[in-house]
Design brief:
The complex is a heterotetramer.
Chain B: H1 2-12, H2 21-30, H3 32-49, H4 51-54, E1 73-74, E2 80-81, H5 92-128, H6 130-144, H7 148-159, H8 163-191, H9 193-200, H10 205-242, H11 253-260, H12 269-296, H13 298-305
Antiparallel strand pairs in B: 1-2
Helix pairs in contact in B: 3-5, 3-12, 5-6, 5-8, 5-10, 6-8, 7-8, 8-10, 9-10, 10-11, 10-12, 11-12
Chain C: E1 7-16, E2 23-33, E3 38-42, H1 49-55, E4 66-75, E5 81-83, H2 89-95, E6 100-103, H3 117-129, H4 133-146, H5 152-157, H6 165-177, E7 183-187, H7 195-212, E8 215-220, H8 223-229, E9 232-237, E10 240-246, H9 247-252, H10 257-265, E11 301-316, E12 321-337, E13 341-345, H11 352-359, E14 367-372, E15 375-376, H12 382-388, E16 392-395, H13 409-419, H14 425-438, H15 455-467, E17 473-477, H16 485-502, E18 505-510, H17 513-519, E19 522-527, E20 530-536, H18 537-542, H19 547-555, E21 579-581, E22 591-595, E23 598-601
Parallel strand pairs in C: 3-8, 3-9, 6-7, 7-8, 13-18, 13-19, 16-17, 17-18
Antiparallel strand pairs in C: 1-2, 1-4, 4-5, 9-10, 11-12, 11-14, 12-21, 14-15, 19-20, 20-23, 22-23
Helix pairs in contact in C: 3-4, 4-6, 6-7, 7-19, 13-14, 13-15, 14-15, 15-16
Chain D: H1 2-28, H2 32-37, H3 43-53, H4 59-71, E1 77-78, H5 91-94, E2 96-97, H6 98-133, H7 138-152, H8 155-169, H9 181-211, H10 214-221, H11 226-263, H12 269-278, H13 282-310
Antiparallel strand pairs in D: 1-2
The chains are: A alpha+beta, B mainly alpha, C alpha/beta, D mainly alpha.
Chain lengths: 534, 308, 606, 321
């Protein structure tokens, strides 16, 4: 086994301790000091929708709260701004809004405000990135009375609860009067009040003494806010982030590289804490629609997949485990035990290529563009490795690491349509926080709609009516037959060699001694889960 | 008797020595620093030309088992890695040698092209004079006062990075220095007495420029060329570091530093060696240029040539 | 105090370290200077006279030299004596500029261009006399008046580049005398100056000697200067003192061979009176190689120059428009016959060189007519011009610059022959070799490079090169000015010899009237771009009519110790210049014909 | 005076060329509307934007408009800065004026450049003068090699090394960031290496040249102390090439700080440029380049003025008497 693999094992041990933290009753000590978190990139904005995936806005949930949330420890849903919620029918959820909550701008959080906020976040017109968790239906919200909000999807939607745990609730007053502020001055209800965003440096927030959670006994979190202020400092250099924790500049450094995590073992003053995530690294090989005909040949596709040493790639990534041959981890609804990892068999790959060539396929015309996005951690060695692997079985490759501006359009249908005859394998990361295969299958395999370039399956490259129809059936179904039909679909796409899962990522943190940090598979940094211990 | 008095005069000026190639050779052998520099450069060039022959491993060969091995360690199949390996298990030393090929050729070709362009523009401008000269020199001044690295970035951002574009951008953004110098030299030469003399002897213009002027202005231009090569090698590193230069998987010194950055604390050799390579190359070029300037400078020459 | 000695050197020895061991510059130099007297150290380049003067204040060490032997004894103001060879740097600083003042050869560069005259004069005063700025300025004013500079108040505020050469040299003198030193060392103080200015400066120095009572150590290469200034003379040759004595004795009965040679080599104004034709100088130790036949000018007119005008624009303003013109050559006309030498005499800026260059079209004249053998030179196209150059050649002033440093002498001399395809192969080689013989250069030099030659030798090469295409006419632009007198004499004789043998015509451009008298059949005097007087040598030099010609001739130092030098001192203000606003058209010159062929300008331009 | 006007006119021309360059080069990327909204944009959105921004007019009209707007300080608005959202015509209402964004970053860059020069000038000049005062001595050799080393080093590499050593191993200084004085030291040192080298070289040769001139001997002959001769008499004359070099290096700092700012997370204009490049935020990139070019031009102008103060010969365009 390679160096880095053994490393990730030892780290698995480290992560357990983080989960071992027991719930401590709210300590009422006056908050003091600043929690400095070194994050790997500057947010592009701090809009309410960003709360769904903190890669864009780490720590936003300290300012902006959701109706309900996923409990980092149990993984179940817990009340936040909604005290209770009930299913009316397959399409509808009804939320009871918490009393006496005010936004940081002083305006009360009325049912109206909540509805406005939800509509803003989920409106297809705004086309926020959160749309990748929308669909097939469209979501809208309305206030029934001052304490009740009803959220509806125009199609039966078993995932509605989950979706409601994503979008942040922000001040309706701000949305009405100064929408431009919405993007860089979040006004929420959370335990911390947004203070300032110094471009290129940090954004910070100060303790909100009027936070509802201080009085509510069903407040979420393992502790009361221990810190007078939060500061999220942007540092793209891995070494720099690590050094900040080591030198006490920061208490927590996000996503250290495997090598930094190893160092932590023999350095004093801080430790590396890791835990599994729902994020996986995958390679998606162009298929139908605008792809080069060569890629339609199943032998060639299989050859490509066979030439990938997935163990090696996962090991190269560092803190990651080798995934099954399917997106999503064990325990997800629709997970198929029988679908194992794709094999690594270069010889077989070469045979297949030979066969294809014998049938008149022009293998020399095969030149696969392996593309990654430069914001993805460790992407460069990964794509280089993949390139080398394909090369070793005689498949030509181009290697590219592109900026989001170049990359994003190309992996969406609109851009794809502009590059007919493409041979691209995009190497990218995706999260599946929902615990259900529905969204996965929808966003990755359903046929994209060129007229709806921002729709949920905008980044799929696969078109298969048969598959689509059975998928939409499955998504509307509940319980066991949902699980069943999903499993079949998983097997189906596995055999089509569409997407190769490369690594199921662990995420790690360098944490200063004296800090207990609890996080879930969605890896959010929330002060109420960060505890000072002596 | 008359000739005798001439001989006496000759002895009076005994300090003026003509400088031959062998003198230069002797001089550089005496000047330890310059000697070291030129030896380094010779080795570099040899390695660059014979990369296939000198590199112990394939620069692109993937070998995940032997990732991040420190210098002087041997891999799983017992192969020896002089300067260690990167995270893909590729031999740093081999990549340095192949990287030299990229970096050095960018420097050489880029500087060469801009020199060609600049010197032609400058010499003609300086010798021809008039409106043509005005226009050229305006252009030179204008382009010189542009933030060149920035413009380079922007252009590469528009055209996209890569070896060829890099060289194009460099030659377009660096010819001015040569033009300015060549023009200055041409101006001096035009008024120099020996050129006037040649003219009065009925020597043709072309012959004056190429037979009389060129040899007299060659030295400073060579010096500048050497310096520019160094500058371009540095710029290539910077641009590649930013991802606008040479594209992976081609090894380039700048890229190697960029890649090694993540492991800078745990695997120092990833960043240190390519950094040193660039540093030593640029330093050697500068030292050499410095030396050439000194020995070809008519004022200093005598001191340097007879120096030990 | 007659017998008391102010400063004395005994067996002074100065060396310069080099990688091949120390090089001895001067050796065994002993002389002394008494209070109030003028001692001249005379010698040619390389004689070590300057090194000697620099040693007295240990200045030589700033040139990398070291005093490795002997002693320098100075009697200080306070009566004590000190050995300047071993004096500490602090002691020296107290003496330099304070008890010993010094002035240098290059007035153009010896003043710091970045500071005002006032500041530079004050500096010494403040250091040595502890004066404050105001007092220093007051003293500076006195000094400037003392050296006869007009409107001294303004001068103090000016920068060196705003002053003329003569004025700068006066400032230098004033600065040197600032702290009332009792010894003033003057290192070639007038070499770089025009002869009229030189006369004034020399006069001034002599005057100041009397006014301040300071002794003066004058370093020069010019025997005439010696004759006029010195009480006693020290003759140096190749780093050694060859002779010492009172000026009259040295001049009348020189003992040492070298001194004799030196004196013989100096052309003396007046020697040629009553002699219609040029004659070579007699060079001691060299068998007299007189011309085969007397140098009689021909009758056929070879070159005619009429109304030649050349102006250089002074650009300025927003779009670099021409705001003024330097009237370098203003309506100049003259003619030269075959086998004749016309000398163009004038001081720097008189336009004599530009005239010569314009004739060869190295400058394109603005207007005028040049006819060579009845061909209109200015009308020729470039190819015609090229082969006309076979017959018109040029010898430049600077023997170092006029040869291409990267080419062998053979190729340089062969160049015109190749250009005109006159010969090739072995014929070419013989021809070049013969040219070397012709100018008395050993054939062993053929494969050498210019750096290996001395100035005189290079000038011979330049002449050989000019001779190569057998020209009928040679412009010799200050051809001997850069050379030591002895060498100068040799080259002059060579040129005369060539004229005698080959019947060449010369346009001999020079600032040195004495030299001109030697070589010229006819003389034209130029001033601010115009010919003010032209005629036969005897007419112009022995019977000058124009005011300027008179001053010029009067200014020429003679070897006569009794000549009065002070009379020439006049208060110096701004020098007249040939710069006129754009569009200014001076009226054409009108000449009076004094005698046959002797013309004098009658309308001055204002 | 006339000269000054001339220089200003030249500078204006240079800036004009720069503006034209960024405008047309920007168009090479392709449809600006598409660039602003991204390929996912709906045709409606694109068309709206085109109409709003007058992108349907002939290119020269647009160019003219662009220049005019620049003159009135309007560099356009950013469609990227501060949004992680997919294209939508609504953005035009809430986009930020790029010029504000750029100006917001300038102080940091100025501060850094000033600090770097604060290190570079005294050290460089001192090294150079020392070397010149004792030519071919050991000191001279050391200075030569050191200064060449400074010129030859890869800035961002040096930066990384400094971080590893001073911030990580020794923990003396922060790894990067902005705010207290400690933050500026490492980046400033990194940036100073090159200017130190070049200033030292120029000073050395310039002073050496001056020390060989006759007026130096005059000063000695006046009994002026040696140090005064070197540091006052020669240095003031050597000042012009030195000032030129300082000016060049200052301009280089304003532009060349890009990598250093990135490595040290220094929120200057360099960092901004890198971000906007990765977001291909065209208006922002164009504005940054124009602004920086303007700065560089200003520096050159100042250097020119400095000449006139330093060199009496060209002061007020006086001609020789």
């Amino acid at each position: 086994m390679t160096k880095s693999r053994t490393a990730s094992r030892s780290l698995a041990g480290a992560c357990l301790c983080a989960f071992g933290v027991v719930f401590s009753p709210l300590a009422m000590a006056a908050p003091e000091g600043t929690l400095v978190v070194a994050v790997n990139q500057e947010p592009q904005d701090l809009a309410a929708q960003g709360a769904y995936k903190e890669i864009n806005a780490t720590g936003l949930r300290n300012v902006m709260e959701t109706l309900i949330a996923v409990d980092p420890q149990t993984g179940g849903l817990i009340p936040v701004l909604a005290t209770a919620w009930e299913r009316v029918d397959g399409n509808t959820l009804r939320f009871t809004i918490r009393e006496g909550v005010t936004f940081h701008d002083g305006t009360p959080m009325t049912a109206e405000a909540v509805a406005t906020s939800i509509n803003w976040v989920w409106s297809p017109d705004n086309a926020f990135t959160i749309q990748e968790y929308a669909g097939p239906g469209t979501i809208s919200a309305a206030a029934l009375d001052e304490s009740t909000v009803e959220v509806t999807s125009d199609q039966a939607d078993p995932l509605l609860e989950f979706r409601m745990s994503l979008g942040g609730i922000s001040s309706a007053e701000q949305l009405a009067n100064s929408p431009e502020k919405h993007f860089d001055t979040p006004v929420g209800t959370g335990p911390y009040r947004f203070n300032e965003w110094a471009r290129g440096q940090y954004w910070d927030a100060t303790y909100n003494e009027d936070w509802w959670g201080l009085s509510a006994e069903d407040a979420y979190g393992t502790t009361a806010p221990d810190f007078a202020a939060l500061k999220f400092v942007f540092r793209s250099e891995d070494a720099a982030r690590a050094a900040m924790v080591q030198s006490g500049e920061a208490q927590i450094a996000m996503f250290p590289s495997a090598s930094e995590c190893e160092r932590a073992v023999d350095e004093d003053g801080y430790a590396c804490v890791t835990g599994p995530s729902t994020t996986y690294l995958y390679g998606r090989l162009d298929h139908s629609l605008h792809a080069d005909m060569l890629l339609q040949d199943p032998r060639i596709r299989e050859a490509v997949f066979l030439s990938l040493d997935i163990d090696g790639i996962a090991g190269l990534y560092g803190m990651a485990s080798v995934p099954q041959g399917q997106l999503g981890a064990r325990g997800t609804i629709g997970f198929n035990e029988n679908v194992g990892p794709y094999d690594y068999d270069p010889e077989r790959a070469m045979e297949l290529l030979a066969e294809a060539e014998a049938d008149g396929q022009d293998i020399s015309g095969l030149n696969i563009e392996v593309v990654g996005r430069d914001t993805t951690p460790r992407i460069k060695p990964i794509v280089e490795a993949i390139g080398a692997m394909l090369g070793s079985v005689g498949i030509g490759t181009d290697i590219r690491v592109q900026t989001p501006q170049e990359f994003n359009p190309r992996v969406r249908i609109a851009g794809y349509a502009n590059e007919p005859g493409r041979q691209m394998m995009q190497v990218h990361v995706k999260q599946n926080p929902s615990g259900d295969y529905g969204l996965l299958l929808l966003s990755n395999y359903a046929c994209p709609n060129i007229d709806d370039p921002t729709g949920p399956s905008r980044s799929s490259v696969y078109c298969d009516e048969e598959f689509d129809s059975s998928l939409f059936e499955a998504m509307a179904s509940f319980g066991d037959d949902r699980d069943q039909s999903m499993q079949e679909l998983v097997q189906y796409v596995h055999d089509r060699h569409l997407i190769v899962p490369l690594a199921l990522l662990d995420r790690g943190y360098l944490v200063e001694d004296g800090i207990e940090f609890v996080f879930g598979t969605d890896h959010r940094i929330q002060a109420v889960y960060v505890d000072k211990v002596e | 008797m008359d000739t005798n008095s001439i001989e006496l005069e000759a002895r009076k000026d005994a300090r003026d020595v003509r400088v031959t190639g062998s003198d230069y050779l002797r001089a550089i052998l005496k000047d330890r620093v310059a000697l070291a520099a030129s030896i380094f450069l010779v080795i570099l060039v040899v390695f660059t030309l014979g990369a296939e022959f000198f590199a112990p491993h394939r620069p692109m060969g993937l070998n995940l088992r032997d990732g991040l091995l420190p210098p002087f360690s041997s891999g799983s199949k017992g192969e020896f890695y002089l300067l260690g390996t990167d995270e893909l298990g590729r031999d740093i030393f081999s990549r340095l040698i192949y990287g030299a090929r990229v970096s050095v050729s960018v420097g050489l070709i880029g500087a060469g092209l801009s020199c060609l362009l600049g010197v032609t523009m400058g010499l003609t401008a300086g010798y021809r004079g008039g409106l043509y000269e005005d226009i050229v020199m305006r252009l030179v001044d204008g382009m010189l006062s542009l933030p060149s690295l920035l413009v380079a970035l922007f252009v590469l951002f528009v055209l996209g990075g890569g070896f060829v574009n890099l060289i194009l951008v460099f030659s377009v953004l660096h010819w001015m220095v040569f033009a300015r110098m060549a023009r200055g030299l041409a101006l001096d030469a035009r008024t120099a007495t020996y050129v006037q003399a040649a003219k009065s002897l009925g020597t043709t213009e072309i012959r004056i420029v190429f037979y009389h002027i060129l040899p007299n202005v060659a030295a400073p231009i060579i010096v500048l060329l050497t310096l520019e090569i160094a500058i371009l090698i540095l710029s290539e590193a910077s641009l590649s570091f930013l991802g606008f230069g040479v594209q992976p998987p081609d090894p380039s010194w700048g890229l190697m530093i960029a890649d090694g950055r993540e492991h800078i604390r745990s695997a120092w050799w990833l960043v240190t060696f390519p950094g040193l390579a660039i540093f030593l190359t640029a330093l050697s070029l500068n030292l050499l240029a410095n030396w050439v300037r000194a020995v070809t400078d008519p004022v200093q020459r005598w001191r340097w040539i007879t120096a030990s | 105090m007659a017998e008391s000695v102010l400063i004395r050197t005994d067996n002074l020895k100065v060396q310069f370290p080099s990688k091949t061991g120390p090089v001895t510059a001067v050796e065994d130099i002993s002389f002394s200077v008494r209070p109030g007297e003028i001692v001249c150290i005379v010698g040619e380049s390389g004689s070590g006279k300057s090194v000697t003067s620099f040693s007295l204040m240990q200045l030589v060490k700033f040139n990398g030299g070291m005093i490795s032997g002997g002693a320098i004894t100075l009697h200080r103001r306070d009566g004590t004596t000190v050995d300047l060879r071993n004096a500490s740097e602090d002691q020296m600083r107290g003496i330099r500029g304070n008890e010993i003042g010094m002035i240098f050869q290059e007035p153009m560069t010896a003043l710091n261009p970045a500071f005002t005259v006032g500041w530079q004069m004050a500096e010494g005063l403040r250091i040595h006399m502890g004066l404050n700025r105001v007092q220093a300025d007051r003293r500076s004013l006195e000094l400037l008046r003392m050296v006869r500079i007009s409107e001294p108040e303004n001068r103090l505020r000016q920068y060196p580049h705003e002053l003329s050469g003569g004025m700068r040299q006066r400032v230098m003198i004033a600065m040197a005398l600032a702290c009332k030193p009792h010894l003033l060392i003057a290192d070639e103080p007038t070499t770089a100056l025009d002869v009229t200015v030189q006369a004034e400066i020399l006069g001034l120095i002599d005057l100041l000697r009397e006014e301040t009572g300071a002794a003066i150590l004058l370093i020069t290469h010019d025997m005439a200067v010696v004759a006029q200034m010195a009480d006693r003379v020290v003759v140096m040759f190749r780093g050694r003192k060859v002779e010492e004595g009172p000026v009259r004795r040295i001049l009348s009965e020189p003992q040492h061979e070298y001194t004799k040679a030196l004196l013989a080599a100096v052309p003396k104004l007046g020697d040629m009176s009553q002699k219609p034709n040029p004659e070579p100088l007699k060079i001691v130790g060299e068998r007299y190689r007189g011309p085969a036949k007397p140098l009689i000018a021909g009758k056929r007119q070879l070159l005619t120059v009429s109304g030649l005008v050349k102006r250089f624009p002074v650009r300025g303003g927003l779009f670099g428009r021409t705001t003024a013109n330097v009237h370098a050559v203003e309506n100049v006309s003259f003619g030269i016959n075959d086998n004749e030498t016309l000398a163009l005499v004038g001081e720097s800026g008189s336009g004599k060189s530009v005239t010569g260059r314009s004739i060869l079209r190295l400058e394109e004249p603005d207007s005028g007519k040049v006819e060579f053998e009845n061909r209109n030179v200015l009308a020729l196209d470039s190819t015609e011009m090229r082969d006309l150059r076979r017959n018109m050649q040029m010898v430049f002033q600077d023997p170092f610059g006029s040869l291409n440093p990267h080419k062998q002498l053979f190729d340089q001399v062969a160049e015109p022959i190749r250009n005109f395809r006159l010969d090739h192969g072995s014929a070419l080689e013989d021809r070049v070799a013969n040219l070397f013989d012709r100018v008395h250069l050993p054939r062993s030099f053929l494969r050498r490079y210019p750096v290996e030659l001395s100035g005189g030798q290079r000038q011979r090469v330049a002449i050989a090169r000019a001779l190569a295409p057998n020209p009928k006419f040679i412009v010799a632009d200050e051809a001997v000015s850069a050379l030591d007198v002895s060498v100068q004499a040799q080259v002059l004789n060579l040129m005369l010899e060539l004229q005698a043998d080959l019947g060449i015509s010369y346009l001999f451009i020079s600032h040195d009237v004495a030299v001109v008298e030697r070589v010229a059949h006819r003389v034209a005097v130029m001033y601010l771009g115009r010919i003010v007087e032209i005629g036969s040598r005897q007419d112009v030099l022995e019977n000058p009519q124009h005011g300027y010609t008179k001053t010029l001739i009067a200014a020429v130092p003679t070897l006569d110790p009794d000549a009065d030098v002070r009379g020439r001192v006049k208060t110096l203000s701004k020098v007249p210049s040939a710069i006129f606003p754009a569009g200014y058209e001076p009226e054409p010159p009108e000449y009076d014909e004094i005698s046959n062929g002797h013309y004098v300008l009658k309308n001055e331009k204002q | 005076m006339a000269y000054l006007i001339k220089r200003i006119v030249n500078s204006a021309i240079i800036l004009f060329l720069t503006v034209s360059f960024v405008f047309f080069a920007g168009r090479l990327i392709g449809d600006p509307a598409l660039n602003m909204l991204g390929p996912g944009a709906s045709d409606v959105a694109l068309e709206n934007l085109r109409r709003a921004a007058g992108l349907n007019d002939p290119i020269l009209i647009q160019y003219f408009r662009y220049v005019v707007n620049l003159l009135s300080g309007d560099f356009g608005i950013s469609y990227r800065y501060g949004f992680s959202v997919l294209p939508s015509e609504r953005l035009s209402e809430i986009g930020q004026p790029v010029i504000d964004i750029v100006l917001e970053r300038l102080p940091a860059t100025f501060f850094l450049a000033a600090a770097a020069m604060g290190f570079a000038v005294p050290i460089g000049v001192f090294m150079g003068v020392t070397a010149a005062a004792y030519p071919r001595s050991a000191a001279d050799r050391i200075v030569t090699v050191l200064s060449l080393a400074g010129v030859s080093i890869v800035q961002f590499w040096l930066g990384l090394m400094l971080i590893v050593f001073f911030a990580v191993q020794l923990g003396w200084l922060p790894t990067g960031g902005y705010g207290e004085w400690q933050h500026v030291i490492l980046p400033a040192l990194t940036l100073a290496a090159r200017p130190i080298g070049r200033i030292a070289q120029v000073t050395r040769s310039a002073v050496l040249e001056e020390l060989a001139k006759p007026y130096i001997m005059t000063a000695h002959a006046k009994g002026v102390p040696v140090n005064r001769v070197v540091y006052l008499h020669s240095l003031k004359n050597a000042a012009i090439p030195i000032v030129t070099m300082i000016g060049d290096e200052l301009s280089a700092l304003l532009t060349g700080a890009i990598l250093v700012e990135k490595i040290f997370a220094w929120p200057g204009i360099g960092l901004l440029i890198i971000d906007s490049l990765s977001r291909s935020d065209l208006p922002l990139i164009q504005a940054s380049i124009v602004v920086v070019a303007a700065l560089v031009v200003c520096v050159n102008l100042l250097v020119d003025l400095a000449y006139r103060l330093l060199n009496p010969r060209i002061r007020f365009g006086k001609t020789e008497a």
